[in-house]
Amino acid sequence: xxxxxxxxxxxxxxxxxxxxxxxxxxxxxxxxLDRFVDAVxxxxxxxxxxxxxETVYLGGGTPSLLGARRLTKILDELRRLYQIxxxxxxxxxxxxxxxxxxxxxxxxxxxxxxTSVGVQSVFAEELGFLGRLHRPADGPRAVEVLRExxxxxxxxxxxxxxxxxxxAMAEERVRLAVETCRPTHVSAYQxxxxxxxxxxxxxxxxxxxxxxxxxEFALFRSVHRALRNLGYPAYEVSNxxxxxxxxxxxxxxxxxxxxxxxxxxSAHSFQPPVRLWNIADLDRYLAALAAGESPLDDSExxxxxxxxxxxxxxxxxxxxxxxxxxxxxxxGRDLASERAEQIGRAESEGLVVLADGCLRPTPTGLAVAxxxxxxxx
Length: 377
Ligand code: SF4
Fold this sequence. Notes:
With 377 residues, the protein is of the alpha/beta class. It folds into two domains: 4-255, TIM Barrel (Alpha-Beta Barrel); 304-376, Arc Repressor Mutant, subunit A (Orthogonal Bundle). Helix content is 42%, strand content 22%. It has 16 helices and 15 strands. The protein has helices at 32-45, 67-81, 101-110, 124-130, 138-149, 167-181, 198-205, 213-229, 249-255, 282-290, 304-315, 324-331, 335-338, 340-348, 363-367, 369-376, and strands at residues 4-11, 52-60, 83-94, 114-120, 154-160, 185-190, 234-236, 239-241, 260-263, 268-271, 274-278, 296-301, 322-323, 352-355, 358-361. Strand 5, helix 6 (167-181) and strand 6 (185-190) form a beta-alpha-beta unit. The longest helix is centred in the middle third of the chain and has 17 residues, at 213-229. It starts with a strand and ends with a helix. The protein binds iron/sulfur cluster. Residues 14, 17-18, 21, 23, 25, 60-62, 118 line the site of iron/sulfur cluster (SF4).
């Protein structure tokens, strides 16, 4: 383990499954919230790591469903077991319905200094389609409550690209959500479909239709343009911030391929060159920890070629791009000469810029970042 890392805690509870969700979560049963908090503490104590924790992220699922007292207990336990930096970014994801002035004040007191609010949309028919339980006004109200409590770093999550949404509609709806909430950070995700999510059945039966590739591209461009015009330039395919100081340090560390420890059911960890992941089942996770066993499901040691491909793929999703000297130092490979032809072609298509030792995607390149990575690594 290197001497700097992040901690992710996956909180596997949600009141009800949203129709577009493929994260591991389910409603809690009686007594489970407290058992989960104890289990996470048990897992953390069995995973000692030497070094400085620079970011902590409680995600899910719906962490705010735990309430401020249990969230505080988890954070206190992490502080007891790990060396968390004084200036660490400590984020909690919150559902708009859970945010009260008391909740916000208690989270701030506990040491959380950043929140990510699951706004998704400020339109009733979209929230209904997505299967969200909150109303359009709940997201902006939650942001306001958090701001009044003293949070200065507040991100919102939005979803666009719903069936029949045009680029003009997406642009307008994202603009309205951002103008109403005035966050410091926006994560705007284009709706995608995966087997297992409730919407998948509707897609398969033809009740809804997904957008074609050209439409997806147009939606992506319109949302990026809207956010840029509002003062939130993209720094990653789906992430935007008022300026560099408001970026998510935790998520940026993933894209920079830095190590992290994942706790909770289905959580992944990355301890280069090994990737590890926990059982994606709360009952089995709790049972394993109650029996003093590891909740690890499996692990995989990545080869240098796999690590290099991952580093390129992650870097090309960010506007910082790939630092070619750092890549050479880590893998002993000169990508600029190895892939000179492919890079030249991507440059002539206006997808990347090679300058100052960095390979950076252009705004158009960001829209096809995954395809670009396959061609360039
Ligand atoms: S989208 Fe978020 S709130 Fe909805 S079920 Fe999934 S994890 Fe829970």
